[in-house]
Amino acid sequence: MRAVVQRVNETSVTVEGAVVGSIDRGLLVYLGAAHGDEASDVRYTVDKIAGLRVFPNDEGRMSLSVIDVGGAILVVSQFTLFGDVRRGRRPSFDGAADPADAERLYLEVVEGLRGKGLPVETGTFRAMMLVQSSVDGPVTIQIDSRKLY
């Protein structure tokens, strides 16, 4: 499972002209599932996102999590995180989980974050989405459950 996490002042996702999810201060999470991802990948990803210390304390040092600052999370499904461009110029998405598994895993991550008491908004799975955000910092972190060490 892969996630690209951005610290944001605000972000929203629009589908077919309607805003389906939006948050103020918090994290924008682009989330992709891989073939073979399972419950342990979900747990790892949820724990990393919820505990990621990327918000500044009073001294300006990044030492607070989204939980610590009372922030929210917007999770957007993003199979293109598994785009492989090693051969040619057109990405191959063979490493991405099939849509049924990917949606199940995506929803498990969303529920896992909510289970930690976080307000979580989402995009629409398998939809064309317009994501708008005010990235703070910019702070962008990659999380990959297959790269534990």
Q: Can you put this structure into words, describing what you see?
A:
The chain is of the alpha/beta class and 149 residues long. It has a single domain, classed as D-tyrosyl-trna(Tyr) Deacylase, Chain: A, CATH 3.50.80.10. Helix content is 20%, strand content 38%. It contains two helices and eight strands. Strands 1, 2, 3, 6, 7 and 8 form a six-stranded mixed beta sheet that branches. A hairpin with a 5-residue loop joins strand 4 and strand 5. Helix 1 packs across helix 2.
- The CATH class is identified as Alpha Beta
Q: How many H/I helices?
A: 2
Helicity level:
10-25%
Residue windows where pLDDT falls under 50 for at least 5 positions: none
Class of secondary structure makeup: alpha/beta
| CATH topology label | D-tyrosyl-trna(Tyr) Deacylase, Chain: A
Tell me the number of structural domains.
1
Task: Spell out the CATH superfamily.
Answer: D-tyrosyl-tRNA(Tyr) deacylase
Q: Count of DSSP E strands?
A: 8
Strand content: 35-45%
CATH architecture: 3-Layer(bba) Sandwich
> What radius of gyration results from the CA coordinates?
15 Å
